Each structure stands twice: as C-alpha cells, then as structure tokens.
Amino acid sequence: MAITSMINSAKRRLKGGFNGALGGLGYKLVRADTLDRLTTPRSQSTELLGGTPNGGDRTVQAGRFQLLPSVNKPPTLCTAHAPKFDPQKTPSQLADKIVAFQQEGITVISTGAEEAATFRETERFDRDVGNRHSAWDWAGNSVESYTDDLKAGLPSPALVDYLHALFSGGDFEAFFRGALGCPAKVANVRLVRSLPHLADGVGPQEWHSDGCPAGVIRGVLYLCDVDAQTGPFQYKDEAGREHTVLGKTGDLLIFDATRLLHRGSPPSHKMRSAIDLVFMPRMPDEDMTIMVVGMNHWPADPFFFKIPTERPADLR
Amino acid sequence: MQPEFETVLPVYIVGDSHSLPYRNMVFREKWTGAWVMARSKYIPSLTAHDFFNSATGDFHPELIGFLEYEGLVRAGRATHLSTNEVDFAIAKAAGQPVRPPLILIAVGEIDVRGPIMRLLKDTYDFVPPFATTLPLLEKPLVPWDVIEDAIDTRLGPLIAGLQQLVAAGFTRVYVQGVVPPTRNEERIRELQSYDCPVTVRTKLVQAFNRKLGAKCRSINLTMLDRWSALTEDDLLRPEYDFDGVHVPPKGAHLYLEALIDDAINSRGLVANHSRYELYYRIACGLNAFQATEPNPA
Amino acid sequence: MEMSCPYHTLPASSFWRQAVAERSVQDLDPHLASTFRFTRETRMASAGSCFAQHISRALQSRGYNYFLTEQAPGFLTPEQKEQHNFGVFSARYGNIYTTLQLLQLARRAFGDFEPVDQFWTDSKGRVFDLLRPRIAPKGFASMTEAIADAKQHLKAVRKLIETTDVFIFTLGLTECWVSKADNTVYPTCPGCGSAGEFDSSKYEFRNLSVAETGSYLSEAIDLMSAVNSKIQIILTVSPVPLVATMEPRHVLQATTYSKSVLRVAAEEMVRRSVNVHYFASYEIITGARSAGRYVGDDGRTITPNGVARAMDVFFAHFTDESTDQSDRVASRAATPQVTSPGSTEPRIVCDEDDFYRALAASRPK
Predict the structure, then answer these.
(1) Is the dihedral of CA B39, B44, B49, B53 positive or negative?
(2) Domain spans of chain C, in order of start
(3) Given an 8 Å threshold on Cβ–Cβ distance, is A214 in contact with B73?
(4) B252: closest CA among B28, B14, B23, B8?
(5) Are B220 and A136 a contacting pair at CB < 8 A?
C-alpha cells in the first residue's frame, strides 16, 4: 500500500480528530510498514539458511569494526514449508480446502452456524481497539485506539472452550498439517464488531498486507451473515483482481495475510460481528492452546514469550 | 519461600558524556509495569563526526566493543537475527525473548559546542530557518546556509552510521537530541576559553536538533526531543542544569521515558522473523540448522 | 596662425594629432594630471556595475586600504565568500547599475526610503532580495533572515557613506525596471535572472533620460557629501556595452545612448562639484585609437589587457605611485596577458549569465 495513500487517508481522518488520524496511520504502519518502508530491498527468496545474510554463511567476514547486513523481514509466503498437498494420498474431510488454500492463499470452512449465532448475542463487544495488553515481547496495536468504528472484545471462557474443541478436532488438525506443514495453535482470539459507516475504512478496513512471520496465518469467523452491505472480507489475487467473500454465520475464512492484500471492507449499512484469529505453528509435542492477548498479533519471539496482562482502561 | 525475581527491559545507551546520567538507571514504565534498565556505555569525546567512517565502513571501535560486550553483535552480525546454531544455543540458554534491541545513541553535543560554536563565539549571530523566541543580537550575521553546511558536515558520518546500523538489523535505534545549553555564561567561558551568548548557543543547538531530527526521520529513525520539558522560553530550566553541560539523571529519565512511549506503540518492528523461520522449520520437522556452515569451495 | 589664437596656448593633450594620432595604443593616456590623489592609507570604497569589480579587485590586490563594512566571517572558505558576495564591493550591495539605484540605496541607508516590493519567495520557500538578487546563492532560508540581512546591510552602507574617504562609482546603465507602486528600481528585471517573477502590472521599463540620470546622481552625491564632508568621489563610465535593450531599437544604438547619457552625467557632476573627479576608463577601452584591441571577439567582453591598462592608468593618476607606473604600464602593454583556464582569479559576478539562462528557459521549446 503506497505511503501516499496512507497519508492521504490519515489527512481525511483529521476531520474526525487528530488522534483518530494518527491512530489510523499508526495502525497501518504497525501492521504493514515493515513491508513497505522499514525494510531494506531484498531478493524474492527469503531463504535464511546457507549463504544468507543472517548468519548462515560464514564466508563473508566483517572488518573488525564493521557490521554486516542482516534482514528482519516477513516472508512473501507464510506457508513455504507445507508440502504440496495431494488429496489422493491424504484423504481428509477438508482436503479440498487445503488444496484451495495452497492455490489461492485463502479458503472458507463452514463451522457451527448455531453456535456462531449464539456467540454473536452472548459475547461482549465492549472495548475499543486500544491495546490494553501491550507487552514488550508481543507485536501489537498502539496503546491508544485509532478508530471509533470498530469495537473489540475478549472472548468468554465458553467461546475459548468452543474454539479449543473446534481446532483440536481431527479435521482441523489435518487441515493445518496440510496448509502449514505442521500443527497449529491459536496465538490470539479477539472479537471485532464493525459498526456501519460511510467514511473510508481505517486500520484493518484498509487494504493491507499483515507482514505475518513465517508459519503464521489468519482466520476470520463470521458471527453473522455477511453480504455486500455488511462489510465482507475482500482480497486481491496475484493478478490484482478483487475478490469479495460473502458468507453465512459460522463461516471461517483462513488466509495467508502476508501473501494476500486484503481488508475487512467497511460495512455500509449493517453491523458485522466476527472473531479475529491468529494461527501459528505448534511443536509436535505441544498441546493445542488458545491464547487471548487483546489487540496483540503474535509473539516477538515464538520460542520465548509470556501471556501479557491486561492494564486498566484509564491508564495513559 | 522462593525469592522473587524479574527480568528487565534493557535499553542500550551509548554515546558521549551525555550517556552518563543514565548510568545504573532503573525504573518501572507506566504502560506494562515492566522494569526498564539502562545499560550504558560512555565513550569519551565521541562525536557525531567520528561515529562512523563511510570510506572504510568502520564504526567507532568502542561502539562495536559495546555491542559485542552486550551480546548484540558477534563476528560482525546482529545476534538477534542470527540463524547460526551457536547464537541459537546462546539465546536458548538465556531463556528470554530475542527481540530487536532498543538502542539509544547520545552524540552531537560536542559537535555543537566544539567546532560549530567556535565559528560564532561572541562575534557573530545568525537567523535560523525556524521561529524562535530568542532575540537576534546586534552582531554581524553568518548566513544560515553556512551554519547548515557546518552542521551537515558533522552529522553526515552519524547518519551514515545509523543507516548501517539499520541495515545490520538494528531497527529500534533512537537518537537523543542535544540537550539545551546552560544559561551560565561564566561556565561556558571556563569550558571553552571564549564567550558565546546563551541565545546564540541555544539557537545553534535548536538548529542542530532540527537537522538531526529531520535526518533521522529520513531513515525512519526517531530523535528524542524533550526540549519543551527541559526549557522555559527556550532556555534551559535551572533545575535541569546539572553542571553547565549535562542534564541530571531526572532529565535523562525524560528522554528514556520518551523512548519507551514511542517504542510501546512501535511494536510492528518487534517480531523476530529469523526466529520464526527457525521455529516453523522445527515445527515442520525440518532441520533448522542445515547448511549453516559454508559449502567448501 | 596669428599669435593671438587661443588654441596656441593649449597643451599637447588638447590636440588630437599629438595626443592621440601620434601615440601608440600603449602610450595613450586620456588624462591630464589629476588634482586628487589617494594614498595607501586612504579609505577607499567602491560600487557600480560589473566593470566596477575590476577596480575593487585592483585596489585590494595592490594593497590599498579597500574599505569593507561588511566583512566575511573569518572562517568562510574563499568559495563561500564568493558565493555570498563578500569582498566584491565595500558592502554587499551587488552590482549597482543606474544612478537611481545608487540614490535609493543611499536613501534606504539613512531610513529615507523603504521599498514596498523587495522580497520574493520561490517555490521552495527560499527568499530572495530583489534589490540584491545574487547576494545569497540559494536565497535566504527565511523571510526573517532576509530582512535581518538587509537591515544589517543598510547599516553597513550607512557606515560606509559616513566614514569612507573616497567613493568610486562606475556608472553602468540607463535602462532599468522599476516598481509601479513606488518607483523602486531593481538591478535586473524581476523574473529575468536569479529571482522574482515578471508581472507587467507590477513592474515597468524605464530608460533614464539625461536629466533624470543627472539629477539622481546629483542627489546621491549631495546626500553623501552632506553626511560626510570629506568624501571624494571618483566617477567612471563602464565601457561594457548593453547585454540587451528593451528599447525598440538596435542594441548598438541603445548602448551608444546609454553610455552617452552616463558620460554627460559624469561630466556635469565633475563640473558642478569640487569633490567629484572623473576616471576615463570608457575612453581608454572604447576610444578610436584602441580600435577594439581591448574588447573580445564578442565585441563586449573587456580583455584582461584592457582591464590592466585601465587600472594602470587609474593608479598612475590617482595615487602617489605615478612615477613608478610608466614602466609597469609599458611592460604590461607589451606583454599579452591571457587568463589561463586554470586561473584561480575570482570571477566577475555579472547578472547577464542569469539573464541568458532565464531567457533560454522562457523561450517556447
């Protein structure tokens, strides 16, 4: 996303308040800036090992007081180590979904519509998108909220249990093994309610690429029917064509948020309720877990991190 | 009863004597309640001009020494991005998240108080290209372009060095703006062996900081600016004048707070993609460290 | 011829045959013995057109007391000094081409005139002083700086007028551009050089008449003499032809007109005031005897030999070194002097380069 358009968007937001404008820009910069601005030009390949700038190749020596270049960039494809899926060899209920994901970078899986509808009514969307779980070892949103058009919420224990059961099931185990190449755990669950508005989208409602680390993919579980007025998920394919994903209550979109330019389009007339999910690789000997970390995205270091604590809403 | 302990959030501070007020500083930051600890290195007489040598690609030796001592650099590479098995083992033994480190560079004051201020002394004044409350003295004027050239000459190596730091993977580098100068003219006479009015000295620092800030922004870094907190009517508040040159630790704390306030909202830079690649490969049952040694020629 | 003929008593210098026809170019000196001489202690100031820079340079290089009231900071490199116009003239007024420009400068220095339209800001926010368009190489960084510099400059001009012993002024042009609002005269047409934008509603062309040129010069001299009773003024007319004319006539005609008007004005001042003297650089360079020897192939550029000859004659007549000059004059005249490509001589700052560039830029492609 061009910097110019980000800035223009922020300028338009100035009419809605200075903080909102900066927050919108700040969100975008946090999510996508490492791709566009902060990282140095690199080759298409993101191989890290064997002849790479980050320590694999020891033939290049630095002078005594020099530093060699090192790159900290997300990959262009977050599922590079998933072997090519052959549904003939690995039958699965979600085999076609795995194939679709590998081909398109996105797939839609139907989950329990009744449960989703219930959660839509029972979950609390009572927070703004300010990050009350800011932590030094997590990538995440700014402390301050950047928009009033989005409401967020933390999942209830019942929802967490439901999701744990859902993703621990055999179908999803197989799906993640096929799509990622390894089992997955949930790095974050957050409730997001988009209020209808006519202004341009801000933050996740703007076109963006997440810059997810390797092995990290995203999910959006619709808690309501999503039509053209409800702000459906949109993405652009490799040819640049726009796709709109309408759906029913309970539909789960799983996508490679780095590979696909995407947005939750701003709902124009109806409210949209959904669950925002982050999936990350899970070690073979690790149990499936669901983490709830507010408006954070993923740990800074997948090897070592703590679950961040929540701070009071009024702390500035 | 088990003794309680915590690990802290280190901020690595390196520079001229303006890094000294940070020495052994520890405080709880207001956002997460984490303890922040300054790990500082004083490099005597370090200037922006000597920070980096563009011709040879060498940093000031003591800067590299500091980064190595703190484990941030090994064999010329940033350890936090290393996919080398040795660095992985070191990180595993430490058992703490490996994040791009927070680094604060404190240089520039000697560049201003030395070669640049010497041009003006008590003889000249200048008009900076920004609004200032400080009066223009009845002295011959030096064209701003000449002052700007002098500042650019001093800042060039620093900016080149900062670019190299970023290219080496140190993307969370901050630069401390030069502190406002003392109002004490006698102290300046004692230090410099010549006079230079406080209004001229202050405008020079303001001009230097503006250039420094703009150049930092151009390479996506942040210069920490606490001018309004440290000054009144653009002159250094007496309570922040420690010895005629430095601010006291409470003044340094203001800069560190500003760093923390910016860093807590800039955590798009914090993900360690090298470590994620290793993690992903291990989770997929691949050998993460295959071919870490170069193939024989 | 009868012995009562008044021409009989005139010196040889009054007769063309002896004074011009029978002299070689190198020997031709169109002066009588000067009634005014200055010494190395005399405070000398100068101003004028491009040609005037040769005089200021010669005074400095020959060790005379060239009076600078706007000194360059000592730490500036020679390049920086040249870029910022330090040392070109006694103060940083840039080239002064017309007598109106000289008068307005003097009046401004004493707070008697404040131009309405003096500063112009370009698209990059750099501010130019239209009365000194080349004084800051890239323009001033701010309006505050431009105004402060102008204020300091006028103070220096005032000090110069009040305290100099000698003021040498080279008259350059009669054609000029003025503000319709208050008659402020500009050294160059705004928009045709370093700075400004031409706007016919704001600026108009004027070609000063004999009366106007004379009266402005007279008023300027009177103002200077009133505040500095000991000032001696040396006038000279630049021999450099016009680079262009706005008059609807051939540039050669326009040049002849301008130089004639300026020569008349200079003569009238010499006749009117005992403290005004004339130096004949114009006659030296353009006189029939020299026949273009001191002018380059473009018919306009004064050759180094021409400049040297003029300076030698100047110092021969206005200093106490006259007895030493004849050898220097002869040897210099005999030796062709060409400025080598690698010469480190500071260049003469003329506005015509900018004029040509602006002209080329404004032509349809």
Answers:
(1) negative
(2) 39-113+157-183+202-333+347-359
(3) no
(4) B23
(5) no
Q: Is B56 a domain residue?
A: yes
**C-alpha dihedral over B227, B233, B238, B241, to 10 degrees?**
30
Whether the predicted pLDDT of C340 surpasses 50: no
Domains of chain A: 76-299 (2.60.120.620)
Quick check: B278 pLDDT over 50? yes
Average pLDDT estimate for C328-354: 56
What count of Cα atoms within 13 Å lies in the side-chain half-sphere of residue C330? 6
Looking at per-residue pLDDT, the higher value among A189 and C4 belongs to A189
What would be the CATH architecture of the domain defined by C39-113+157-183+202-333+347-359?
3-Layer(aba) Sandwich (3.40)
B136 touches chain C (CB under 8 A): yes
Can you tell me the distance from the alpha carbon of C77 to that of C90, in angstroms, rounded to the nearest whole number?
Answer: 19
CB contact under 8 Å between B61 and A64, yes or no, is yes
**How many residues are there in chain C?**
365
Give me the residue from C70, C80, C141 closest to B129, CB to CB: C141
Range of the domain at B74: 9-283
| CATH code where residue B42 lies | 3.40.50.1110
* Residue-wise pLDDT tens digits, B75-119: 999 999 999 888 999 999 999 999 999 999 999 999 999 999 999
What tens digit of pLDDT does each residue of B48-81 get?
999 999 999 999 999 999 999 999 999 999 999 9
Q: Which of C75, C84, C148 sits opposite B127 (nearest CB)?
A: C148
Output the pLDDT for position C289. 84
What is the crossing angle of helices A170-179 and A157-168, to 10°?
70
Strand partners, C139: none
What are the DSSP calls for C42-103, one per residue? S-EEEEESTTHHHHHHHHHHTT--B--SSPPPTT--HHHHHHTTTTSSSSS-----SHHHHH
Verify B-A touch: 3 or more CB pairs within 8 A: yes
**Can you tell me the mean pLDDT for A53-78?**
79
Nearest CB to C152 within list B141, B144, B146: B141
Q: How large is the average pLDDT for residues B36-42? A: 97
Among residues A262, A126, A265, A249, which one has the least CA distance to residue A205? A265
Nearest-CA distance A312 → chain B (Å): 10
The verdict on a CB contact (< 8 Å) between B127 and C80 is no
pLDDT in tens, C38-65: 999 999 999 999 899 999 999 999 999 9
B273/A73 touch (CB, cutoff 8 Å), yes or no = yes
